[in-house]
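Researcher: Checking consistency across runs. Here is Inner membrane-spanning protein YciB again:
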Amino acid sequence: MTKDNPATQNGETGGREINPFVKSALDLGPIIVFFVAYLLLKDRIFTIGGTEYDGFIVVTAAFIPLLIASTGALWYLTGNISRMQVATLVLVIVFGGLSVWLNDDRFFKMKPTMIYLLFGGLLGLGLLRGTSYLKYVMEGMMPLKDEGWMILTRRLMLFFFGLAVLNEVIWRTQTTETWVYFKTFGLSIAVFGFFLSQGKLFQAHGIEDAKGDDTSGG
């Protein structure tokens, strides 16, 4: 895996190009499989080694190796995966493994909370040091001036902390099925909506393509 070079940490500019459909399948496939498998098995009870497991635990047990395989395939095909993907995989293994081992779905439901607290905390640490770690991850996708990166980083940090709180509220007060819908669709829509709402910031602090300006003026 690529190390330490900011230009290659985001997986967009540092790795080998692969078919976008293949990349999307590897990124989203495990989540879709988890959702569909849960809908099919949510009302079933499985007896394994004399212990009863509900469908959610069985699906969680299958999701862990599936995510490991898809992440490994992405690494093999592109030559690079982001640190966020590594952190997510580790937390899935830890919290998913605890849920399966202890036959307790609460640990896996806490996993998004830990992920967003980790990401928000890392962004906050960078801000305390006067830098934007987000810039190192996403600079290739969104060219912004330094002040723009700092503003976006502060907003995203608060957004991540908000998602962590929201996940805790959902899984502690709602049914497992409601939480699965929230995890599969709600979180993704929220992240998409956040970046969509930052249009004015991108306009105010975006870096214009000087080369494009020169050619249009000539």
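Researcher: Does this match what you'd expect to see?
Model: One thing to look at in this run: The chain is about 75% helix and 5% strand.
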